[in-house]
């Protein structure tokens, strides 16, 4: 409806503007022509009267008869448009003069000068001053008539414009109402009612009728396309349901396989490891040193394979675990992890820097898995340093303060070339050899899987021999407790906290 009203206002303004300009131009042209016509007629009439007066003044002027000359000039009182008249002799001496009774200044005065001739010789000069007040009054009356005519014409134009506007906008308004009804039904959650149609009246213009037909044709096409979309939607939902069922079945099969891996492969591996250890312990004196080395290598590879199976099992469990989001203090999770790492290598000198608190939103068990792998990774790659440093902290500068929390795990260990980092989080991808640092290549893949399940992101910054920093951004879905600033030393196996290295 606002569109139709806007169109009506525009047409009204356009009609008023064009009509007003046309009437103004016509009035100006008429007034100019009328002024010139009346002015020329008045001037010609008064010039003729002045010529007659000059002729009658010839004899008095010839003989210098002031009385007769005054009587001739006084005859001009019958013409109110003459303001003054003067009869001047050749020596510029005033012979006689006339002034209109009542005096007063004239309006738009005009002066005429005519020679007074006697037998072909100029004997005097008649100077007549004309008052064109009558011309002004006649022009004012003419302008008043034209103004009233223009107002009448403008009123008629407005009436005709309103009828024209009604004739043009009513079909458009009806078309707009149909479109709004179609759109409103769709927005309210009901299927779009494309059965509605715009009906063109018999008196509508051909253009409006064509617009109505085009609009109805568009509704027909939308109805067909909507039906097709509904069919595709149903087909897609069926395919999604089918794929979901297949995925559930595949996951169940994968879980069964994992169960088989855990229970069917571990037992033979434990048996091989146990029998190898029995050979080493019971027949050590009978085995040559080379044979003992072979048995130790067998035990090492079996233990590595057992560790790989455990890591793969943990990686598979990450995707199937039900998450329970809550505020989690990463410092509280990191304490036991660091204590466990210190207990495995109590001789190492490692400074672990932790803030008083570091709150994030997430699932505590899954975050424990991720943090364990990150800290274990930092512990492993700093193992060749005499004085290692591992830090857990908040990276507020790298976070979107309104939607996420970013923390980091930093070490001063071996580091790596960032040009090789594209496959860092892929399973079984390692940037260092087994001889340099032991590992299965599953830990960082597990970390990435945990972060992705939280809807977060992880990235890394590193340089060779300059350490590595892993950044983790987790969505912030609820307000978190305030975190105290400043790092502190990590826990020790004895007291739980330490002011320095162990």
Name the average pLDDT. 77
Can you list the strand order of the major beta sheet? 10-11-9-8-6-12
Compute the number of helices: 9
Spans of at least 5 consecutive residues whose pLDDT stays below 50 are 186-190, 490-502
Largest sheet data: 6 strands, mixed
Q: What amount of the residues lies in strands?
A: 15-25%
- Report, as a whole number of angstroms, the end-to-end distance: 80 Å
Provide the domain count.
Answer: 3
Description:
The chain has 502 residues and is an alpha+beta fold. The chain has three domains: 2-138, 2-Layer Sandwich (Beta-Lactamase); 194-320; 324-489, Histidine kinase-like ATPase, C-terminal domain (Heat Shock Protein 90). The chain has helices at 2-56, 58-63, 66-74, 133-187, 206-282, 289-320, 330-344, 364-381, 443-453, and strands at residues 82-88, 94-99, 110-118, 121-130, 326-329, 350-354, 359-362, 388-394, 404-411, 457-462, 468-475, 488-489. The strands form three sheets. Strands 10-11-9-8-6-12 form a six-stranded mixed sheet, covered by helices on one side. A four-stranded antiparallel sheet has the order 2-1-4-3. A two-stranded antiparallel sheet has the order 5-7. A hairpin with a 5-residue loop joins strand 10 and strand 11 (468-475). The longest helix is centred in the middle third of the chain and has 77 residues, at 206-282. The chain is elongated. 21% of the residues are buried.
